Every structure is written in structure tokens, then in C-alpha cells.
Amino acid sequence: MVAEKPSPEDALRGAKSYRPNLPRHERLTNWDKRAKIIFNGKPLKYDSIYISILPQTDWKLSIVIKKCCGNAVQRNMYRRKIREAFRLCKPHCRQPVAVAITVFKKPDNLQVNTLSQFLINHIKSQLE
């Protein structure tokens, strides 16, 4: 009798692979609160992305991407990159903030590390 060889796919099936999502308590879904952040916060521009930052008691993130930024796959990719940049900047900042991000047109080259560094620098400068 011949023993079955384990395949590499079997090893991958056992490991749980998932991307960490933004926790529900960090999502900002209320449009009135988003408008408050946009009008009262510090406005910034990064490429074709408009960012408003307002100090709060807890971390909040709101992302709006216009349909002219590409098809749904591209818009979802931009959302994932923005969320990842937000997650990367949180450990570097002492005080929590609320961030409202709006993408009006297709970004040229959206990089997670440069966007997170941009957020870190501007959050720290606003809190000082």
C-alpha cells in the first residue's frame, strides 16, 4: 500500500488567513459627524485625496471614494490601502483622532507607506 503525500495546499488550508478589518467601533458612518470633522478639522491634500483630521476621544475613520475613480475593484483597492495606512499610523500617535478621507479623482500612485507617514506627520503636528 502506498502512503499519500501531503500537498502544500493541505498545509495552507489549516492556517487561518484573513486580513484584519477595521473594527466596528472605529468606523464613522454618521454623515453629520463626518461633516463636523470636515468643517472643524484640519484640511490636508495628499495627491488627489482630501483628508480632514480632528482630535477626538477615540479613533474614527470615514472613507468616501467617488465613482469617477475607476471601477469597483480599483475603488476597493484604494479603500484597503487607506485602511492599512490608518492602521499603521495609530501606534505612532499618542492621542486618538477622527479622520475623514475623500478621494475625488483617481490617485496617481497610492502607496500605503507614504500615506501612513503623511498621516503620522500631520497628526503629530496637529496634536502639538
Which percent band covers the strand fraction? Answer: 15-25%
Outline the low-pLDDT stretches. none
Span of the ends, CA to CA: 72 Å
Kindly report the average pLDDT value.
Answer: 85
Decide which structural class fits the backbone: alpha+beta
The quaternary structure here is single chain
Helix content: 25-40%
Shape: globular
Biggest beta sheet attributes: 4 strands, mixed
Please give the number of β-strands.
Answer: 4
Q: Please tally the helical runs, counting DSSP H or I stretches of 4 or more residues.
A: 4
- The H/E string reads HHEEEHEH
Radius of gyration: 19 Å
Q: Strands of the biggest beta sheet: in what spatial order?
A: 1-2-4-3
Fold and architecture overview:
α3 links the parallel β3 (60-65) and β4 (97-103). This protein has a four-stranded mixed sheet, with helices on both faces. Helices cover 40% and strands 20% of the residues. The chain has helices spanning 8-14, 31-40, 72-89, 112-127; strands spanning 42-46, 49-55, 60-65, 97-103. It is globular. With 128 residues, it is α+β, with helices and mostly antiparallel strands.
